[in-house]
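Reopening this ticket.

The earlier resolution said the output was attached, but the attachment link was broken on my side. Pasting everything inline this time so it's all in one place.
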Amino acid sequence: MELTLGRDSPLEKERVANLMGMLVPGLRSALDVGARDGFISYQLADRIASVTALDLKQPKLDDPRITCVQGDATALEFADGSFDVVVCTEVLEHIPTPLLASACAELSRVSARHVLIGVPYKQDLRLDCSTCGNCGKTNPSWGHVNSFDEQRLNQLFAGMTPVRSSHVGQTNARTNWLSAWLMGLAGNPFGTYVQEEPCVYCGHSLGPAPERKLHHKVLTKAAASLSGVQQSFVQPHAKWIHVLFEKRG
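Inline output:
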């Protein structure tokens, strides 16, 4: 899982500090949706008295300040307005696209005041794909099936007002349809095969990258060369975007 691959890196520290800096004073309760290892939940507990950590599998966090629950972001079992702030970071990109609007509606529903969102910014989902060894289908990197910018986030949270927004990091990672197609023919050797997320199609572990033969190496070289030429014309943009939404009225 990509979030556990560099907690101590300067960029990850910048991301988390920026996210915590988006919180407003006076918050008494928080829901961390997609808590996983609890890294963000612990950060919230240092700032907010009551923190609930939620994931598809109940988190196991040894901290009396944090209540751990099992739940689904698309059908939260909480009453309307249960939390001062609902925090959902590095989660929405993983939710199946047909369920994304429902998840965002649920985040808004259980919030009394704010929803804080953190997602990759303008991610090119064609880049660093992986080929599933079980079903043979192409998976997006890290299991990210959604890409976001300001416009899409505002549409997903149309019933709320964005009151704070921030960008973190910088990247020029981008490909093109021809390079992506050639890389797919080559078996996607540079995919994120170390990820914990299973194949988004069949649910099996992705396993190691497929063995490359000579023609795969030729295709890979051609795809990489085309992407290299493209990089000369790509303008860098932020790696992540954080937005704090506020309930209207």
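Reporter confirms the inline version is readable. Residues 52 and 67 are 5 Å apart (CA to CA). The chain has a mean pLDDT of 94.
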